[in-house]
Design goal:
The structure holds two protein chains of two kinds.
Chain A lengths: L1 H18 L4 H6 L41 E5 L10 E5 L3 E3 L9 E10 L6 E7 L3 E3 L5 E2 L14 E2 L7 E8 L11 E2 L3 E2 L7 E6 L6 E10 L9 E11 L2
Parallel strand pairs in A: 5-11
Antiparallel strand pairs in A: 2-4, 4-13, 5-12, 5-14, 6-7, 6-14, 8-10, 9-13
Chain B lengths: L2 H21 L8 E6 L2 E6 L5 E9 L4 E12 L6 E7 L4 E2 L5 E3 L4 E8 L9 E10 L10 E16 L9 E7 L3 E3 L6 E8 L7 E7 L2 E5 L9 E3 L2 E3 L2 E3 L1 E2 L7 E11 L6 E10 L1 H27 L1
Parallel strand pairs in B: 2-10, 12-21
Antiparallel strand pairs in B: 1-3, 3-8, 4-5, 4-7, 4-9, 6-8, 9-10, 11-13, 13-16, 13-19, 14-15, 14-20, 15-17, 17-18, 20-21
Classes of the chains: A mainly beta, B alpha+beta.
Chain lengths: 241, 304
């Protein structure tokens, strides 16, 4: 019995050692505010030094008059007395839609999280390089027009199995109001047709961990040529000024 | 096999197979997750001077290659959102354009130097520094979409010889509901300002209603553009609304602000009227009921 106990202790020790990963993120990121002072005047003559790290206002805090430093600088928002990073994450780097069956829509989702704690607001935009295409570009799955009509800026219901194409739905925080429910879809803005990236999340107010689900949907007809269809989608997350 | 030997074999096996499932977390390599700090950098600089700023990029997802670029942006609306352009920053904004590798959980301090030559025109430059992740490698050859992400931080840059660019403001809108109900009405002020000057600025001021003061947020307004200004309370952006209390009669609100440290004060008034409509309505309803009850009581007597 002693042997068993020893073995258990030994095994337990190694399990704890190997199965609990060290998350540097937890230490660095939680509220990783680097407290910086918006009006720190200590930098006269410093800016031309290449080793100088400018964290906050250096030079002269009274706007309208330069000192010999010749600049006024400020990092972060004046009304938030700490600099909180702006962050963006999406749960996937690729979405595999698998084998497509004509008339049977294929859907898949990703989670988007934005933290704009240090910013006044933010927006997330998205665009595709082109509609889903085969590698030689000979065949295309069109961007959806929904049941009636929808575009890269206006969502509409897409429930009919006889309506084909590729589109997406947004659900969650700060998503455009035209995504009335989970049956409403839009096309992605198509860069190959010179369409501007469209906003898929936005807020004018400070937000922390704003979360939305993006659901992609493909439905193909029985006459869709066989092949592997792919495209690239770019998400752009920027804080407001 | 003896019972003890069997136990020695089974218990570690169970622990090794069950533990990973108990404590497994999402695999970071499957996600894109970036952060950038500071989210905004403001600089007024004399031609011929030099300033260096560091933007810290943190990768909280899987290993990736980051491609940096600095491009111009344009205001997208009156709320401070932006549209990126394809125009690259001027050549005196110097940074390493080469892609760099950033492993998961790693930080990278990215240097940007601003060195406007002495003949640089005195104008504003509205820029965004963009960090773009590399595309994923498609190993599956399936019907799929590959994702890339771009995360940005804004740079508001003023080139000025004397540090005194012309700054001028116009109050486009300072309004509130004309009439509200004293009990259930809410007064929310709309503040919309325009920058008529040559350089961006922020308003510093407040809305005053009797003894109540609402501070307006010092949000940047770019030259030639308008912006809806929020109010601020303890570093939190809020709507510019009065406290929920019983107001009666005329409510005069005064908007007062200056731009940056300029001594000129801009002012405008907004007037609202508050009446106890809901109370009056309730009283009328009550009176009607009472009246009807009286009529009903009297009515049978009249029939006889």
């Amino acid at each position: 019995m002693k042997k068993v106990l020893k073995l258990l202790l030994f095994t337990g020790f190694f399990l704890v050692l190997f199965y609990f990963p060290i998350h540097a993120q937890e230490k660095i990121e939680s509220p990783n505010y680097r407290i910086q002072f918006p009006n720190l005047n200590s930098g006269a003559g410093i800016p031309t030094s290449t080793n100088y790290k400018l964290d906050s206002t250096i030079g002269q805090s009274v706007a309208g008059r330069f000192t010999s430093a010749g600049y006024i600088a400020r990092a972060g928002f004046q009304y938030i007395h700490s600099i909180i990073p702006f962050s963006f994450s999406i749960s996937d780097i690729q979405k595999n839609f698998g084998t497509l069956t004509p008339g049977t829509p294929s859907t898949s989702s990703s989670t988007i999280i934005v933290s704009a704690g240090g910013a006044g607001g933010y927006s997330v935009k998205a665009y595709e390089n082109n509609p889903l295409k085969t590698s030689d570009g000979s065949d295309t799955i069109i961007d959806t027009l929904c049941d009636t009509t929808c575009s890269e800026t206006t969502a509409a219901a897409w429930t009919l199995g006889t309506k084909y194409g590729f589109g997406f739905n947004m659900d969650g925080d700060d998503v455009p109001a035209d995504f009335t429910d989970t049956t409403y879809f839009r096309q992605f803005s198509d860069a190959s047709s010179v369409e501007s990236p469209a906003t898929i999340m936005t807020s004018a107010n400070v937000g922390s961990s704003r979360t939305a689900t993006i659901t992609y949907k493909i439905n193909v007809s029985s006459v869709q040529p066989a092949g592997t269809y792919q495209n690239k989608i770019t998400f752009i997350a920027v804080p407001s000024y | 096999m003896k019972k003890t030997q069997l136990t020695i074999f089974i218990i570690p096996l169970l622990l090794f197979t069950v533990f990973p499932f108990l404590f497994a977390k999402d695999v970071d390599a499957q996600a894109i997750s970036l952060s950038v700090s500071p989210p905004i950098f403001e600089l007024m600089i004399q031609p011929g001077k030099e300033v260096k700023q560091i933007f810290t990029v943190t990768n909280l997802g899987g290993d990736t290659t980051i491609t940096p670029k600095i491009i111009y942006f344009e205001p997208a609306d009156d709320l401070g959102n932006i549209n990126l352009t394809d125009d690259l920053s001027p050549n005196w904004v110097i940074y390493d354009k080469e892609p760099f590798k950033l492993r998961g959980q790693e930080k990278f301090d990215f240097d940007v130097r601003f060195l406007p030559p002495s003949d640089t025109p005195e104008i504003d430059h509205f820029l965004t520094i963009i960090f773009e992740t590399s595309e994923s490698v498609d190993l599956l050859n399936q019907n799929s979409s590959n994702f890339k992400s771009q995360i940005g931080a804004n740079i508001l840059l003023t080139v000025s010889i004397d540090g005194n660019p012309k700054k001028s403001a116009e109050i486009i809108e300072f309004t509130a509901p004309k009439i509200i109900d004293s009990l259930f009405g809410k007064i929310i002020y709309t503040v919309k300002l325009k920058n008529d000057g040559n350089s961006y600025w922020k308003p510093n001021g407040k809305i005053i209603v009797d003894d109540e003061i609402i501070n307006i947020a010092p949000q940047n307004i770019l030259s030639g553009y308008t912006r809806n200004i929020s109010c601020i309370n303890d570093q939190t952006l809020i709507n510019c609304n009065l406290k929920d209390k019983f107001y009666l009669g005329k409510i005069t609100a005064k908007l007062e602000f200056s731009i940056d440290e300029d001594p000129k004060i801009y002012q405008k008034e907004a007037i609202s009227y508050s009446f106890p409509f809901s109370i009056l309505g309730f009283l009328i309803f009550l009176l009607t009921i009472i009246r009807q009850r009286i009529i009903f009581k009297l009515w049978p007597r009249k029939r006889h």
